[in-house]
Amino acid sequence: YGDWSSDVCSSDLADLGPAKAVLLEGKDGPLKLVNNGGRPGWGEEATSKAWALGSVHVDKLLKKLLDNKSYADERARFDEEGKKQGEEFQKEMESLKTQYGSKSKDDPDFPKGQAAVQALFERYQKWNAGMQAAQGKLMAEQVEKAYRELTAAVDTVCERRHVDVVFRSIPSALPFDSR
After folding, report:
1. What are the angstrom distances between the C-alpha of 93 and each of 87, 89, 101, 113, 117?
2. Residue 30 to residue 81: CA distance in whole angstroms
3. For residue 8, what pLDDT is reported?
4. pLDDT at 11
5. pLDDT tier at 179 (50, 70, 90 boundaries)?
6. Are the beta carbons of 163 and 53 closer than 8 angstroms?
7. Is the pTM higher than 0.85?
8. Who's near 52: CB < 8 A, 6+ residues apart?
9. What is the mean predicted confidence (pLDDT) over 140-147?
10. What is the four-CA torsion angle of 97, 101, 102, 107, rounded to 10 degrees?
11. Cα dist. 37→21, 44, 162 in Å?
């Protein structure tokens, strides 16, 4: 009798088919396997087929996109402008210190100097709040744009590779990095 499994599995064995369907017996009755749009299928519904799945590590890719030179340059320009404006406030404070710093509380110009410092401080706080809001807006815009680029790239890969469903993921084995 010999080793019949090597004969059955040999590369000389011709393909089985073509066939319109394959019936598999089971305790709940037969299961009919068919070609459903190029995928193994088992029913009449469009969803009764095998699906090609993919997974995208969004965090890792978004960080790489945001490290891109165009995004980094835009943030650097914003930071540089903020630094220049901050230096202007610093110069103005130094000027006030020079003008009023040596005045005692009894000096008639002391209230004027105190008011000037308070006004500068209020302008600085307002400017700083505006800068923080603008920086948050810039970052949100960049994240949104990078995410759109990422989804466009995923769509392109899915189309080329015939992937039906893609899950966004952040592998739980990786520590969280809030950078």
Report:
1. 10, 6, 10, 11, 7
2. 72
3. 54
4. 55
5. low
6. yes
7. no
8. 39, 161, 162, 163, 164, 165
9. 96
10. 130
11. 13, 12, 11
Nearest 10 degrees: Cα torsion 92, 110, 125, 76: 20
Rounded to whole angstroms, how far apart are CA atoms 5 and 175? 49
Output 45 or 75, whichever has higher pLDDT: 75
Provide the pLDDT for residue 31: 92
SS (H, E, C) the chain: CCCHHHHHCCCCCCCCCCCCCEEECCCCCCEEEEEECCEEECCCCCCCECCCEEEEEHHHHHHHHHCCHHHHHHHHHHHHHHHHHHHHHHHHHHHHHHHHCCCCCCCCCHHHHHHHHHHHHHHHHHHHHHHHHHHHHHHHHHHHHHHHHHHHHHHHHHHHHCCCEEEEECCCCCCCCCC
| Amino acid (one-letter) located at 122 | E
> What whole-number distance in Å separates Cα of residue 33 and Cα of residue 21?
5
Q: Residues 5-28: pLDDT tens digits?
A: 555 555 556 677 888 999 999 999
Q: For 69-127, what is each residue's pLDDT tens digit? A: 999 999 999 999 999 999 999 999 999 999 998 999 999 999 999 999 999 999 999 99
